[in-house]
Amino acid sequence: MWIFGRKGPSGFSACSTAEEVTQGIDGTGRTAIVTGSSSGIGVETARVLALRGVHVVMAVRNMDAGKNVKESIIKEIPTAKIEVMELDLSSMASVRKFAKEYNSSGLPLNLLINNAGVMATPFMLSQDNIELQFATNHLGHFLLTNLLLETMKNTVRESKIEGRIVNLSSEGHRFAYREGIRFDKINDESGYKSIFAYGQSKLSNILHANELARSLKEEGVNITCQFTSSRSNCYQSSASPQLYQWELQQHAMWHCIHKYRG
Ligand SMILES: NC(=O)c1ccc[n+]([C@@H]2O[C@H](COP(=O)([O-])OP(=O)(O)OC[C@H]3O[C@@H](n4cnc5c(N)ncnc54)[C@H](OP(=O)(O)O)[C@@H]3O)[C@@H](O)[C@H]2O)c1
After folding, report:
1. What confidence score (pLDDT) does residue 117 get?
2. In sequence order, what E strands does 148-240 have?
3. Who wins on pLDDT, 227 or 246?
4. Which of 84, 93, 98, 89 is nearest to 142 (CA)?
5. DSSP code per residue over 214-228
């Protein structure tokens, strides 16, 4: 649609692909974690970072799917430095295990892309008994970021290269509950609305990014923290721009149809 093709001051638009916006950038020597890179936008993010020479760690809950993606990236980019590690963001124990392994691996960390997400699921509780969308989309990433922050700060100090944390939010953040985040009713099944709960988790991604950016600036740490919320999230694929938007929304639609059919 024309509106997504309108270019901003950067010269790029929401229709620009990841390959286009990273053209000419050499990411050699940098290391990135991309959560949820077993499908959708995460795959394209991992692929293009690898294409630009970044060492990519795919943090995924489905190891088989992750390994298949890794193989397909290596097939296309034989020089890619890429590996797969297990991470289930809906489980705090899994997040802690991942962070412990990563922090003791000796790998630096320049970029953390908090991409994984679930959308509009029926009411469910995580392994820690927290509403699933809030647990996965926000709390898991919040804990992960906190646990990896020291490693990131060390990398920035040693490399003197700015670090970056990106939270993938959504325009859906506008459709949170009327009160915004229902801190005292996170697990209230009776008032649960799957789309509002998604919006609530995506609003949390934004508030998390803003507060972290503020506190890192105050601390004088050279790490920028930002969120993405526009449709540019879904238009990153060079190969198939519409595909990634479709997969997440298909999942949401499936649940809505089943819910309203009763
Ligand atoms: N596509 C859109 O229209 C759109 C628009 C705005 C914002 N976004 C945001 O963009 C991000 C990526 O969306 P997408 O369209 O690429 O979705 P997707 O194709 O459904 O991919 C989501 C990824 O998150 C992973 N994931 C889900 N639950 C997880 C968990 N508990 N632990 C670890 N990984 C988990 C999935 O793993 P499995 O493969 O194991 O399921 C999958 O790899 C999301 O944060 C979404 O909110 C998307």
Report:
1. 97
2. 163-168, 223-228
3. 227
4. 89
5. HHHHHHT--EEEEEE
Could you give phi then psi for residue 180, rounded to 5 degrees? 90, -110
The pLDDT tens digits for 196-244 are 999 999 999 999 999 999 999 999 999 999 988 755 444 334 433 344 4
61 token code pair:
């809950």
CB 227 within 8 A of CB 172: no
Topology of the domain comprising 25-261? Rossmann fold (3.40.50)
How far does the centroid of ligand 1 lie from the alpha carbon of residue 139, in Å?
Answer: 15
**C-alpha–C-alpha distance, residues 232 and 3, integer Å:** 11
Atom 14 (ligand 1) nearest CA: 40
Q: What is the pLDDT of residues 39-79, one digit of tens each?
A: 999 999 999 999 999 999 999 999 999 999 999 999 999 99
Q: Which of 102, 177, 192, 198 is catalytic?
A: 192
> pTM for this one?
0.91
SS3 call for 128: coil
> Domain coordinates of the chain in residue numbers?
25-261
Annotation says 192 is catalytic: yes
Atom nearest to 249 CA in ligand 1: 3
CB 73 within 8 A of CB 121: no
CB atoms within 10 A of CB 112: 27
Phi/psi region, residue 61 (left: phi>0; alpha: psi -120 to 50; beta: rest), is: alpha
- What is the arithmetic mean of pLDDT over 176-196? 95
